[in-house]
Design a protein that fits this description.
The protein has about 250 residues and is an alpha/beta fold. The chain is built from eleven helices and nine strands. It starts with a helix and ends with a helix.
């Protein structure tokens, strides 16, 4: 593994020469904001059973129970703040060095950090969707228990979180948009994801197979390690803080 300075220097060189860079993020980038991951040592699926809380069948059996769990998570998300990692990615977009953020996260922190072109592969926990008419709306505060399960303001139908559950396909529009971005990209910055969840995890491989480069910022080795031009294993906030300083040094 490269040292922090070596990784940042090479990443900055790759960014400067890139014509079309795309970021691919997972729950690890938000873990430092206090939002639990799903599959880490202290991940949510170590404490909860996904088949009881994150499937269409679970929702059909007990929508109140599912909504209470999501309301708890909505509270965590709304109380969290974007990290330096989120903010540097937004800054790279503003500078024209990053075209798109493709994220598996449902927390909206990229948008709150200032990223404008964000593709949400797994939906958003801060939206509800009517199971009857399909109407969607934003959730701006943690729902109270006496409001659950949420109902549609247009037709009165039962609403669900607008996220992708186990057994469901990714939204077609988001997946197609992501395919287009990775097919155009000559550089992918992978942050906070092991890449094990499919089909999302295979998206960065599209760019690499076309001859593009990959920067891998994660806590540990993962499926991208062997194909990455840069591997940094550690906290993403450390990497992006130093990258931000490196950029300021080069433009000052």
């Amino acid at each position: 593994m490269a040292s922090l300075e070596e990784a940042v220097d090479k990443a900055w060189r790759l960014l400067k020469k890139s014509k079309y860079a795309v970021a691919f993020t997972g729950s690890g980038i938000s873990a430092e904001a206090g939002i639990p991951t799903f599959r880490g040592p202290d991940g949510l699926w170590k404490k909860y059973r996904p088949e009881e809380l994150a499937t269409p069948e679970a929702f059909a059996r007990d929508p109140v129970r599912v909504w209470k769990w999501y309301a708890w998570r909505i509270g965590l998300v709304l109380n969290a703040e974007p990290t330096i990692s989120h903010r540097v990615l937004a800054s790279l977009e503003e500078m024209g060095l990053l075209k798109t953020v493709v994220t598996q996260n449902v927390d909206g922190l990229h948008q709150r950090a200032g990223s404008r072109n964000v593709i949400e592969l797994h939906g958003s926990i801060l939206r509800a969707r009517c199971t009857v008419c399909g109407y969607k709306w934003s959730i701006e505060r943690k729902p109270r228990d006496d409001e659950l399960p949420l109902k549609c303001s247009r037709c009165g139908g039962l609403a669900r979180p607008d996220v992708v559950w186990f057994g469901e396909p990714l939204p077609r529009g988001a997946l197609e948009a992501a395919y287009r971005e990775f097919s155009r990209a000559d550089l992918v910055i992978v942050v906070g994801t092991s890449g094990v969840v499919e089909p999302a995890g295979s998206l960065p491989l599209i760019t690499v197979r076309r001859g593009g480069s990959l920067i891998n910022v994660n806590l540990e080795e993962n499926r991208y390690s062997s194909i990455a031009a840069v591997n940094y294993y550690g906290r993403s906030t450390v990497f992006f803080s130093r990258l931000h300083e490196r950029i300021r040094e080069s433009v000052s």
